[in-house]
Design a protein that fits this description.
alpha+beta; 5-stranded antiparallel sheet; globular; 34% helix; Creatine Amidinohydrolase, Chain A, domain 1
């Protein structure tokens, strides 16, 4: 019998709200408004364990007192009441899906002017922070501004991301399991690679194995590419049949109880051009080098500059998109990014995806693994078959 799915306990959600409220007081915020949509639910899930399906969702956190979860329509209301780890759940008429029906089932709805007036009755709303504005529909934002009246409205993305940067013990448990599932399913996917197999069939083998092991889905829209498609940083699995002489790129990651694992691997079928082989070897060198450097107290700039120097040494400078690692958690790719611009340093309980991507307009490779920063170094959460697997075909 399979083990039950692990989840973050209610007590941790209560503690998260308390930490957010303390950070708000330090920044002089009277209210924090967050937002989520179906493709990006991380902040709302961090605060409530509710994730948007079809409709939008948002959480209003006052500087003191209970938070409010907003979502759209009676379906999402019932869904939220089952899963949300906060009590006050309300329907907002603008939070419905982009092609919503006229509901036959009545639902009590609240607008931002109504809710903010209610909160004003409890205390002042002089300064309001808004997070996730890059996913916020204009009509909702306009109504927020109407309800805010003369309050100062400021960006607050940094407040939330700062609190999410170091993971709790409960979060680390879920990330370990997400990575374990990702890695074990990767073995299943690689085992079926041979000439004639289609890209989507490889992905399907991985997904079936991941779901069977308890994944709730994927951490992002995963893909398998091959041959001429491998130079693309973002892609999707196609109907293309893998051929001898191809490099097959696997970019796959399981989501487990909201937390994202990820691995990217290269499989070579026979002989490929030397430049492509060199690119894969340099990516592996950069991956191992970055793992060695990621330990407590190391400045991000040291890691980033070493990565760029290694690319330059091998003639691949300018063929990558960003630094060699980024944080991961409720989003497969989240702040902080490892670069030389922020002045940040590596801290214990940070979790990074080491993300080595090198490509020109003909060849490309991505190798990716997940590491947890410990008190004295790091723990590699994925590690299987980092060296490119070369199949004799």
């Amino acid at each position: 019998m399979s083990a039950p799915i692990m989840r973050i306990p209610r007590s941790e959600y209560n503690a998260r709200i308390a930490r957010v409220q303390e950070a708000m007081r330090q920044e002089g915020l009277d209210l924090l408004i967050t937002h989520a949509c179906g493709c990006e639910s991380a902040t709302v899930r961090y605060l409530t364990d509710f994730w948007a399906v079809f409709d939008f969702a948002g959480v209003l956190v006052p500087a003191s007192g209970a938070p409010i979860l907003l979502t759209g329509g009676p379906e999402s209301y019932d869904f939220a009441r089952q899963f949300a780890q906060i009590e006050d759940v309300r329907v907002h008429p603008l939070y419905v899906e982009t092609s919503a029906p006229e509901w036959d089932k009545p639902a009590s709805a609240f607008t931002f002017p109504q809710i903010l007036d209610e909160l004003r009755s409890r205390g002042p709303l002089g300064k309001i922070g808004i997070a996730n504005v890059n996913t916020l529909p204009q009509v909702i934002y306009q109504e927020m501004m109407e309800g805010a009246r003369d309050a100062e409205v400021v960006p607050a993305e940094g407040l939330i991301m700062g609190l999410r940067a170091c993971k709790s013990k409960e979060e680390i448990k879920l990330l370990r399991e997400a990575c374990r599932i990702t890695e074990e399913a990767m073995k299943e996917a690689v085992s079926i690679i041979r000439p004639g197999v289609r890209e989507w069939e490889i992905q399907a083998a991985w997904m079936a194995a991941a779901l069977k092991m308890g994944a709730e889905g994927t951490g992002y829209p995963c893909w398998v590419t091959s041959g001429p498609n491998t130079f693309q940083s973002l892609c999707k699995s196609t109907d293309r049949q893998v051929q001898a002489g191809d490099m097959v790129q696997l970019s796959l990651g399981a989501k487990y109880s909201g937390y994202c694992g990820n691995m990217c691997r290269a499989v070579v079928l026979g002989k490929i051009p030397q430049k492509h082989r060199d690119m894969i070897n340099v990516a592996h060198e950069c991956l191992e080098e970055t793992i060695t450097l990621l330990k407590p107290g190391t400045p991000f700039a040291v890691v980033y500059d070493r990565y760029q120097a290694t690319l330059d040494k091998h003639g691949f400078k300018g063929l990558t998109l960003y630094g060699p690692a980024h944080s991961t958690g409720l989003q497969e790719c989240e702040e902080p990014w490892v670069d030389n611009r922020s002045g940040r340093v590596v801290l214990p309980d940070m979790v990074f995806n080491i993300d080595i991507w090198i490509a020109d307009h003909k060849y490309g490779v991505r190798l990716e693994d997940c590491v947890l920063i410990t008190e004295n170094g790091n723990e590699q959460l994925t590690s299987w078959q980092r060296q490119p697997l070369i199949l004799d075909v």
